[in-house]
Structures are given as C-alpha cells and as structure tokens.
Design brief:
CATH superfamily of the largest domain: Aldolase class I
Number of strands: 9
Helix content: 40-55%
CATH architecture of the largest domain: Alpha-Beta Barrel
Largest sheet: 8 strands, parallel, barrel
Number of domains: 2
Oligomer: single chain
Shape: globular
Strand order of the largest sheet: 2-3-4-5-6-7-8-9
CATH topology of the largest domain: TIM Barrel
Order of helices and strands: HHEHEHEHHEHHEHHEHEHEHHEHHHHHHH
Strand content: 5-15%
Number of helices: 21
Radius of gyration: 21 Å
Mean pLDDT: 92
Length: 433
C-alpha cells in the first residue's frame, strides 16, 4: 500500500505540524545548533516526518523481487549529497514527485562523512526535513555507501579498523540508515594465484559485517546489505570473480542468515571521473556487456537483485539509457551534482575564489606530481563542503533557488533515463514500511 493511500495520512497528528519556514529553522538547528538544540530539532523532524507519512525503509524487498524476476528494466539511482544537503534533498524530492518516482536512494559514503562533516544523524535529519517541506510521502531509503576498509589501516591494525566500521554501521542504523554497503574490495589481492584466494579477505570481512548488521537491525526489518568485488577504478570485474567471492562468502556466512541483496562491480568507471589537464572530463567507456553478464549471474545464481555500478555521475547523458538495458540494479551518482553546484553561474564568484585559494593552501601537499592547478582543484573541491559548510548553507536565497532548479532538472532527466518514473506502486508492492 502506498503511503498516500494509508488511512490517517491526510491529517497530521496533533502537536507535530509545522510550516516550511519552521522546518527551515528546525533543520538549521539540527545541523548547527548546540548539543541540546541539535538533538531536540532532530527528534522534532523525525516526528514531523512520521506525521507526514515519510518512513525510513529498507529496499531489500524490492531487490529480492528483482532477484526472483518479478520486475526488470529499471536501475535505481543512489544519490550522494555532499553539501547544502537540505536544499539538494528538496530538489530531489521535487523531481521524484513530478514523475511519481519511488525507487531512489539517498546515501553518504564513509569518506564523505569525514570530509563533508556530516554524521549519519545530521544527514538523516536533512533528508527527512527535505521530504516534509516538499510534501513527499512514502518510504525513503537512506544508505551507508562504501563503508570501506582502509587497506593501510587494516594492514597495520586490522581489528581496530574493523571496529571503526562496526561503530559506523551501528551509528548509521541507529539514525535510520536501513541500507548498508560493505566494501572490502580494497583488500582483494590480485597477486594471489587463484580467484578464490584473491577474494578470501573480502569474503571474510563481508560475511562478518553482514552478521554484525543482522545482529543490530530493528525488529521486523531486513536491512539491505551490499557487497563489492571490484574496487572502482581498478581491474574490471568478471563473473569468475563474482562466483569466487560468493562461494567463499556464503560458506562463511552460513545458511541461517540473510545474505547480500546486491553486488557492486567495476566495469570501467572511476570515482569523480577522469579530469584532463585543462579541467575537462575524459571520455570513459563502461563495459555494459560485462555489467549485464554480472547482473544476470547475480540474479540467476544467487537470488540477488543484480549488479551495482559506481562512479557514474560524470558519464555522457546517453550512457544512462543503457543501464536499465543492461539489467543494472543500482547506479551510484555523486560528483556530477557537486559539479553543478560549484560550476553554476549562480554560485557567488567571490566565495568560489576564496574556496579555491583555501584548497590550494590547505591541501597543497596532496597535489600529485604532474597535476595542473585545474586538475588539483577539481579533485580537491569536494572538501570545501566540510571546510565551508556554514557559508554554503547561507548562500543567497536566489542562488540556492536557481541552483536547486538546475539540480531538479538534472534529477528528473536521470530518473527518466534510468526508468524509475512511475515506480511508486512498484515500491509499495514489494517494500514493507
């Protein structure tokens, strides 16, 4: 049953209604307030969301349906919001409402939590507030993206690194993230002779983390857990890699626990795209044939929803039509939206100049030999979302509106190309909320 059809959703519970202006104040306090104001505001936003029929949910049921062949031909966009999160979320929900989009995910990666200075509780509050303000109703899928093993830290202090991930998973689930992507592909060892040996560490960590997630998931909810077999930007994944990983993973997990709902693979992309010396983007070719083979194997052999493609937001527009044709379950999109914000003619030029000077000064040691200034700024400006968090939040209202309109148009285009328009009923059919 869709949220709009559920009894009681047409009237708000007494004492939890609010105007859009009041939500604006609540969400700002939820981000920048002192400890007491922040927690009070986040709780109030959760109450408002519930009263408005906005429900944080797991997408596991929808993906299990794909694994059973009950639907096909759509690719769920997973959107990373790195900054001005409330305003960007509003533009996403406007686009979703326009075309009755129910199948979309809002996510943040472990690395992004750090450099954008957004903990899961804050992120959830901004997303819920955006949904309430724009009048969205129904399930909202929050995802912990790339909860990734740092190979250097794992090599020196493995248990400490794994405990850090467990703590983050617990924090995220407590904040309402009911979709968690575990990424231990960073420790796949391609120097080992057999595919099974190459994936051995990945299998062990992903099985252990799956077990941990199942131990903390809320009663009555099956969290969607994703795994990853190929590090984005590395060697392209194959069906042989998938089988080697799944054989080891399932053996270690055992028969009594629900396993993965999806598997992330590498088929030719790079996070953020490849920037050329003049700052423009290099052409990237995705191996859609391999992507389709991986997705079909994931469904037919293991009952998963399919394969997931990362690093896709800077691809040419015509590429997005090909993801549903290749049976891609989910595609992750981030840097392209960041580019829209910073490259917008409505972004204040004086602030942009100040940001770029700051980046060149603070992160000079990160500049790689041979990089031009344009390449360095492109790769580094994502960190401005944390370093200039309050300044970005307080952009002039006219700038925020126009940037938001541009983002809304972009989200609408992607929703249509990925075939998730008119998926409200599909989501209601397979997702419990």
């Amino acid at each position: 049953m869709s949220s709009a059809e559920q009894p009681g959703n047409n009237s708000l519970r007494k004492g939890v209604s609010a105007t859009s202006g009041e939500v604006d104040i609540l969400v700002k306090n939820a981000v920048f307030g002192n400890d007491e104001a922040r927690e009070h505001s986040r709780e109030k936003i959760r109450q408002l969301a519930s009263a408005h029929g906005v429900v944080l949910a797991s997408i596991d049921g929808l993906y299990r349906a794909a694994g059973k062949g009950l639907y096909t031909g759509i690719t769920v966009p997973a959107i990373n919001i790195r900054g001005i999160t409330y305003q960007v979320a509003r533009s996403i929900f406007r686009a979703a409402l326009k075309d009755r989009v129910g199948a979309f995910i809002l996510e943040i990666a472990r690395s992004e939590i750090g450099y954008t200075a957004q903990r899961p509780g804050e992120y959830a509050a901004c997303i819920l507030a955006g949904a309430v303000t724009e009048g969205f109703r129904g399930p909202v899928f929050l995802q912990g993206d790339h909860f990734q093993v740092n190979p250097a830290k794992y090599s020196s202090e493995p248990e400490r690194e794994l405990n850090s991930i467990r703590e983050l998973v617990h924090e995220a689930v407590s904040a309402g993230f009911l979709n968690i992507d575990i990424d231990a592909s960073t420790i796949v060892d391609l120097k080992k002779s057999s595919f099974e040996e190459q994936q051995e560490g990945n299998c062990q960590i992903t099985a252990d983390m799956t077990r941990f997630v199942r131990g903390i998931e809320p009663e009555g909810i099956t969290i969607s857990v994703g795994g990853e077999i190929g590090e984005v930007g590395g060697r392209d994944s194959t069906v042989v890699d998938l089988r080697a990983f799944m054989t080891g993973y399932l053996r270690l997990l055992g028969p009594d626990l629900r396993g993965l709902s999806k598997i992330s693979v590498q088929t030719g992309t790079t996070h953020g795209g490849v920037v050329l010396p003049d700052g423009s983007m290099a052409s990237v070719e995705v191996d859609f044939k391999a992507l389709k083979e991986l997705s079909q194997a994931a469904r037919k052999e293991y009952g998963m929803g399919g394969a997931v493609q990362h690093g896709a937001s800077t691809l040419p527009d015509e590429a997005y039509d090909l993801f549903p044709q290749a049976d891609t379950l989910e595609v992750h999109l981030a840097t392209g939206f960041q580019n829209i914000i910073f490259d917008s003619p409505y972004f204040p030029g004086d602030l942009l100049d100040r940001i770029y000077r700051h980046l060149r000064d603070k992160y000079a040691s990160e500049m790689k030999q041979g990089d031009t200034s344009e390449q360095f700024v492109y790769k580094t400006r994502k960190k401005a979302f944390g370093d200039f968090k309050e300044e970005l939040w307080n952009l002039p209202g006219s700038s925020l509106r126009r940037i938001g309109d541009t983002l809304e148009e972009r989200f609408s285009l992607l929703f249509r190309k990925l075939k998730v328009a008119d998926t409200v009923d599909l989501v209601s059919q397979f997702v419990d909320y």
